[in-house]
Each structure stands twice: as structure tokens, then as C-alpha cells.
């Protein structure tokens, strides 16, 4: 059975007694918030705030996945004013009251609606209805692959459109994995792609997707599309009020010195005393990554592994910050040296 990641938030909406009954069948299998009409409310359900349309539109901006037990047409009309694009819209799946069909309506690949529709069909003994071209042709898709490996692509929309069109048109699209990532390829769906082992001996191809978090840009005789898995984390210690421009420049330089693609950044972190540090919050926002914080006690437990500073201990409570934070973020896979400049320290890690 395909499953949805447990950390993804799901909201279910039901409008009729039959919908409420179907929601009851699903609740033991999925962690979700269930919304219904005030007239149908029962324990475990939340009443619509301002009616169905208003509640569904609010949830559209608050949840990762939406399930609507009702008519497809009604769902489309309600959501039309809040639709944005496939990169940011949540997944939307529509179910009929009997649970016979799970229709992947919106954000099938990036949002995960196709995956959710299959899971709902498995639970209910129904049929998943999926219309994305790569799926109906029994192929993987570039946006699906990006989602599976948490990857980023420059010019995401155009790259996905081009590669997926190649696949469904019978073109030969190769896929090459950087040696550091070869273990990943057995865990993801690459149906339709042509495996490439040696870049010096390419088979006949119309295009190539290459997967790497290093900075290299391949120059080949076919169109290439670089998919960058987000595997890089950075621990940062800094003095109060540090210049945001300095921090951003240091990170860019540190990534370059370690041959890491900026798109590979997955998270930045620091000690929880830096929760409100403007430069670090700004860096996280501009990089589009979470800012993760750790208590002093967690850093103190690891400081025997790293050089310590009495000044940092007096200021923070632990003898060092960037190294233990990078260690915690990466699961112990620190890479390169610690960069120190003008009251800022940075340490990189790479997730296995």
C-alpha cells in the first residue's frame, strides 16, 4: 500500500450523513481534521466556520492535503478563487459518498494527490482515478521524482513540462545519479527513464536528468536537467545583531568552498537563544528553509567533540554552537571546516 507521510497535515470535509459515515471509516487509518456542517456535528468533528466554501478555502492555505467527500464540480467551483499553481497548492482528492472512487483533483505529483488517492482507494476498497499523463502511461515524472527525493530544479515549471512531455512522447530521457547518491535510486520510481551509469559512454538520448547536490554543471551534447536533492544543513552561531548581508555572503561562500549547490540547502539551525535573531530568520526565509533551534543542554552534551570557547560558554551556556548544531541537524555527518568571520561561525553537514 502506498502511504502518505505522517507529518503531512490532512483536512477532510463532508457535507452529508453519508459523507460523515465515510469519514468515520477513514479516521482509524489517517490522522486528519474532519470538518462538517453544524447540523451533522458529532464527537471528533469540527463545524464549518462560515459555511463549507469559507471553511474549505481557509483550509486550502493551512493544510498539506484536502479530502472532500462530495461532488467534483462543487469542489472545483469553491476552490477556483484560491488556486495558485502546482508548486504551492495543496493536494486535493474528491471522494464519492460510497468510497467507490478517489479522484486526484489537484497537485497530483508535487502535492501528492495521486499518492493520497491511491491510499484512500486501498483503505476503502475503491478505485483511484488519476489522469496525469505520465501515470496513465505507466511512467514516472520529473516533478514526482523531485518530490520523492526532496529535490529542487532551476526553472522548475519549464523543466518539468519539458521532461514529462519527452517521456509521454516516447523520447529517451536518461537519468544519472552522482556516486554519493546511488543508494537512493533503488528507493524511487524512475519508470520510463533510461538508466545511465557512465557519462563518458552515453546511450542515444534526447535528454538527461542528473541528480547531484554538488555544484557541477554537466556540459553534454543533449539537453540536461539538474535535480538537486536537499541534503545540506548548516549550524550557525553568531553575536547579537549581526549583519544579515554578512551571514548570507558567508553561507554562499561556504557552500562554494565545499562544492555544494545552494539549492541543496535543507535547513539552518542554531541554539534556541537565537530564536529572534533577525539575520538568521531572514536567512531562513530568503533560502526557503526552516530555522531549527536546539536547547543549550543538547549542545552541551556534544561539546566534548569540538573545540570550545570560554566566551561562548559565558554568553550562551555551551562551549560551542555551530558544530553541535550541524551535528544534530545532519545526524553526525559534518563536512568541511568551520567558517569563522566577524562574530559568526558556520558548520555544514550533509544528510546521508
TrEMBL record:
<dbReference type="GO" id="GO:0016787">
    <property type="term" value="F:hydrolase activity"/>
</dbReference>
<feature type="domain" description="Cobalamin synthesis G N-terminal">
    <location>
        <begin position="55"/>
        <end position="135"/>
    </location>
</feature>
<keyword id="KW-0378">Hydrolase</keyword>
<protein>
    <submittedName>
        <fullName>Cobalt-precorrin 5A hydrolase</fullName>
    </submittedName>
</protein>
<dbReference type="InterPro" id="IPR021745">
    <property type="entry name" value="CbiG_mid"/>
</dbReference>
<dbReference type="InterPro" id="IPR002750">
    <property type="entry name" value="CobE/GbiG_C"/>
</dbReference>
<dbReference type="Pfam" id="PF11761">
    <property type="entry name" value="CbiG_mid"/>
</dbReference>
<feature type="domain" description="Cobalamin biosynthesis central region">
    <location>
        <begin position="141"/>
        <end position="215"/>
    </location>
</feature>
<dbReference type="InterPro" id="IPR036518">
    <property type="entry name" value="CobE/GbiG_C_sf"/>
</dbReference>
<dbReference type="Pfam" id="PF11760">
    <property type="entry name" value="CbiG_N"/>
</dbReference>
<dbReference type="InterPro" id="IPR038029">
    <property type="entry name" value="GbiG_N_sf"/>
</dbReference>
<dbReference type="Pfam" id="PF01890">
    <property type="entry name" value="CbiG_C"/>
</dbReference>
<dbReference type="GO" id="GO:0009236">
    <property type="term" value="P:cobalamin biosynthetic process"/>
</dbReference>
<dbReference type="InterPro" id="IPR052553">
    <property type="entry name" value="CbiG_hydrolase"/>
</dbReference>
<feature type="domain" description="CobE/GbiG C-terminal">
    <location>
        <begin position="232"/>
        <end position="348"/>
    </location>
</feature>
<dbReference type="InterPro" id="IPR021744">
    <property type="entry name" value="CbiG_N"/>
</dbReference>
